[in-house]
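Supplementary Methods. Inverse-folding protocol.

Structures were first reduced to a discrete structure-token string of length 495. This string, shown here, constituted the complete conditioning input.
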């Protein structure tokens, strides 16, 4: 007699993307065989599975709580500006598939209405490498003059020049997100195509010299640089690195050049792709004092604050907070507060916010303050309150206390992990030359992969005379406000 099928607990029914044809398909978030996973059902290519977590009890609760307190649809306040598809590196894992498509640079005159119509938004200057644009400084200044926050996302090659780092500071950037995948040069060769450690370290010294708050974006590939999760954390805690206010562990995803390589059998990173929950496992294993149970409660507080301040943020972005001890070590948030009592505060908020939103939000903020006020928290209480308020006015690492380090466990949405109910609250909109204006970066990523599938272009080999394919519609299930809006006519590329 055949063994019975393992029990399946369906947490949610949603929509996903078929790994093969990239069509919109029905999907379920389930717990089965001791894991939480996303199962997608394509009528042509069958069922495909994306692991979400090997800690099903954790995922069940986080998933439930997130959707319980984030039932509304909030206004987008953060936009990625894909300035150029050119780059001074050729990374085998490039999400943007840089130096491949004949996509013109983004005509930034098209963002002027965005600068004028929106109030105090955040603009992320990125993709593929924004520092190769000669007009970068001009547009940062325009964004700052319009009252917006600005962030530079960079591989750091040009920041390794101190004079260039000073120009970025003088231009008005509030913060810098630096690719920093660890200290293993062999891993750098695999992920980035060349050794980069000396350049990255010089870039970090320069960012400290000019006073630019920094977030480390640490791409982790399974079996490639897993051991660097703890190494980078300990590096960030050093007293001389107090300009590092955030460490984001980004699980390797199947997009751009990486996905192109899989299709062409040029390399196989499929087994190296990770979800945020897996990087949390690694940090917990490599850094005593970081506990998944504490991260679970912290994210209930975090999701509640997002709801209170009406901030869009993806379920696939989870956080924790530690404080520097001034000696190269750290104090976890759980050592400063009574987390069980704060969890009760969060659960009370979740039970009341739909029926009595205003009352629930006022009580939550009041209770959060009362339960955070103790002798251990006293030295940093004011800084903790300011950190909360940054969620309301726009997260700006320059305003985060150098005593604090935010930890993030994040991913980029690709066809494998795309969940329509998660994508609705994507915390990043996107503006690009080939895709126009898209309210959710998760949707933009899928649309870009569909365009890539219609071309024969390979990384590093442009095909003169070919035009970029026309923009297409968002996945069928995407709400109307997430669908792409036409972009402005494109001009010739900037040098």
């Amino acid at each position: 007699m055949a063994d019975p099928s393992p029990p399946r607990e369906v947490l949610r029914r949603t929509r996903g993307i078929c790994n093969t044809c990239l069509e919109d398909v029905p999907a379920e978030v389930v717990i089965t065989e001791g894991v939480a996973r996303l199962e997608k059902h394509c009528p042509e290519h069958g069922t495909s599975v994306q692991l979400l977590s090997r800690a099903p009890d954790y995922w069940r609760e986080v998933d439930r709580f997130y959707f319980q307190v984030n039932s509304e649809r909030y206004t987008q306040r953060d936009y990625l500006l894909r300035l150029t598809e050119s780059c001074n590196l050729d990374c085998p894992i490039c999400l943007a598939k840089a130096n491949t498509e004949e996509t013109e640079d983004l005509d930034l005159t098209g963002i002027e209405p965005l600068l004028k119509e929106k109030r105090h938004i955040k603009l992320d200057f990125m993709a593929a490498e924004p520092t190769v644009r000669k007009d970068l400084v001009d547009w940062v200044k325009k964004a700052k003059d319009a009252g917006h926050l600005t962030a530079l996302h960079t591989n750091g090659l040009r920041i390794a020049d101190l004079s260039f780092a000073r120009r970025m500071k003088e231009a008005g950037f509030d913060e810098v997100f630096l690719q920093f995948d660890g200290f293993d040069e062999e891993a750098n060769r695999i992920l980035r195509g060349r050794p980069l450690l000396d350049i990255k370290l010089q870039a970090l010294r320069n960012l400290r010299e000019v006073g630019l708050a920094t977030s480390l974006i640490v791409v982790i590939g399974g079996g490639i640089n897993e051991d660097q999760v703890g190494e980078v954390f300990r590096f960030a805690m050093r007293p001389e690195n107090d300009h590092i206010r955030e460490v984001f562990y980004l699980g390797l995803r199947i997009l751009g050049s990486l996905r192109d390589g899989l299709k062409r059998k040029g390399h196989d990173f499929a087994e190296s792709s990770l979800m945020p929950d897996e990087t949390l496992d690694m940090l917990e294993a490599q850094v005593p004092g970081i506990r998944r149970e504490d991260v679970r409660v912290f994210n209930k507080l975090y999701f509640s604050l997002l709801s209170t301040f009406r901030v869009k943020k993806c379920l696939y972005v989870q956080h924790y907070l530690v404080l520097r001890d001034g000696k190269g070590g750290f104090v976890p948030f759980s050592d400063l507060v009574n987390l069980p009592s704060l969890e009760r505060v969060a659960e009370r908020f979740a039970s009341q916010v739909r029926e009595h939103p205003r009352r629930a939000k006022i009580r939550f903020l009041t209770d959060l303050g009362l339960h955070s006020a103790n002798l251990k928290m006293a030295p940093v209480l004011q800084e903790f309150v300011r950190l909360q308020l940054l969620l309301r006015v726009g997260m700006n690492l320059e305003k985060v206390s150098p005593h604090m380090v935010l930890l993030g466990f994040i991913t980029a949405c690709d066809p494998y992990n795309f969940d329509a109910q998660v994508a609705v609250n994507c915390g990043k909109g996107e503006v690009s030359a080939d895709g126009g204006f898209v309210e959710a970066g998760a949707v933009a990523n899928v649309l870009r992969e569909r365009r890539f599938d219609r071309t024969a272009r390979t990384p590093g080999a442009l095909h003169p005379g070919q035009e970029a394919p026309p923009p297409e519609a968002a996945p069928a299930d995407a709400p109307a406000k997430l669908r792409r809006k036409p972009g402005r006519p494109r001009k010739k590329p900037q040098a």
